[in-house]
Amino acid sequence: MKTTNKLAILLGIVCISLVVAFGSIIYYIFDKYSYVDFYKRLETRVSISARYNLGNDTTNAENLKLLKKQHLEQLENEHEYLIPFSAGMSVVDTAQKYNLPTGFLKEINSKGKAQAKSGNTFFAGSIHSNKKTGNQYYVIVSAGNYYVSHHLLFLRNIIIVGVVLTLLIVLSFSIYFSKHIFDPIREITLKVKKISTENIHHRLSSDNYKSSNEIAELANTFNDLLSRVETAFEIQKNFISNASHELRTPLTSIIGEADVSLLKTRTPEEYQKSLQNVLQQAERLDQISKSLLFLAQTGYKGNAIVFEMVRVDEVIWQTKGLIDKINPANQILVDLSLVPEDPKKLKINGNVQLLHLAFSNILSNACKYSNNSPVTVFIASSNAHVIVTIKDKGIGIPETDLPHIYDPFFRASNTKMFEGYGIGLPLARNVINLHKGMLTVDSKVNVHTTVQIKIPLFKV
User: In 3D, which of 427, 426, 421 has the Cα closest to residue 409?
Assistant: First the structure.
């Protein structure tokens, strides 16, 4: 069942339940009140009847009769009973004689007065004495309750008609309301269905939903999701394009070299040279494959990586020692002017091997793209982070390329003269992310490139 129909039915049930409950309460209260009020009217007539039938003053009795006739409303089927009462009389016989309820007369005998109902006829009566003779009498008045038989019936019919009309009105309103309140959502759904990989740049217009903050928030959430999907999609396309190119180049060289070598018989020296070319391209292919696998592994938060307390300055010095062996011409300088006196402010929760990999990639890039110009490493600390800043004086990164520097295989437009695969920086950022840190890059073409790394301090 659709949500609109569910909402319409739910609103209808709630409203009708309230109307029925409210009408039932009103009917119940008026029904009870009509009985109480009618019995009081009968008791008043019993009292008046006793006064003018059993009183000594004949003049007053006539006046009472006249007042009753002129001012008291004549009840439906109203009857008065003045029945002599004695201690030994049969209640059953008296009841049958005057067509009165037996239990009614018994209650009068025991309590002195009583009320009763038989069918649509109501009775009220009590025992009174004749002040002149001293004899006792049942004084009883019976009548039909016109209010119950007509007015309450009319009220009940009005309530039933009101419930039916309310049901129709509420259902109509609920259906209309439920359909139109979901119009913006239905519109958003239709627009989202039209968005695919061919037009993923399309966005929902939240200006149409300013009157509804929730709908506008939903549209903005969809837009944010589409932006993230578009970014991931573009990164994926770029990755596939670059990866296929980087992998195809050594494979093409290996196949081409092998084809050329097999065209004719060659000297051992020529075969050796050909195999060296094949080996060189195979090693390049192996390096690219390992880099891709490691990049993929560091992109996930795995539980297999072992973290321990590590001093960042020691990792920097160890990394510098490795680079000195690989590239003796480097000019890496570790500036100690900002190093904190408290050694605790240099300790982080990290993995030494991964940190070596990240720092060696960044430092190697700094040396390579600055043609071994001076590279300065600053080590500092705040109350919450260890901060490592690496600054070179190399070719820099064009401003238009900065948003893409973390895309795998992406290389800046001014790096064609330098060998590389475009994996080092994305790999370094993944490592820093695994350490719950942050890596930022600031660069200006032919002036400098500054990489800043912040990693949270070790907490005991």
Answer: 421
